[in-house]
Amino acid sequence: MIATKAKESIDQAVCYELQNIVKEYGPTYHSTHEGYAVLKEEVEEAAEDMKKIEKQLEGVWDSVKLNFSMNEQLYILKSFAVALAGEAVQCAAVLERFLSTVGGGNE
Fold first, then answer.
1. Mean model confidence pLDDT for the chain
2. Residues sharing a CB contact under 8 Å with residue 30, sequence separation 6 or more, in sequence order
3. What three-state secondary structure class fits 25?
4. Per the domain annotation, does 107 fall within a domain?
5. At what angle do helices 32-66 and 71-102 cross, to 10 degrees?
6. What's the confidence (pLDDT) of residue 103?
7. Number of domains in the chain
8. Cα–Cα distance for residue pair 35/98, rounded to 1 Å
9. Are 11 and 70 in contact (CB under 8 A)?
10. Do the beta carbons of residue 59 and residue 73 sit within 8 Å?
11. Range of the domain at 51
């Protein structure tokens, strides 16, 4: 489970990302179709980052088994994990905007 302060930081990042989206595109989507399309794109980007993590992790495991140095692989893996976290923040912000479109929001 993620620490409370870290969760609060994620919530703040989602709020900040939502503010940027609203400033650039407005508070709601033009339709539920548009909202779905944007959400689908963000989810696909997150899935791609997860695939990168999984592939990089295989390389780390190979290094572990062979007792090879893996520092560079771990730094790369961390960068992929941070990218995935960013995509997850974007997904959450898009979902908040989508909720506003369908009459939910800020729940």
1. 95
2. none
3. helix
4. no
5. 160
6. 86
7. 1
8. 6
9. no
10. yes
11. 4-102
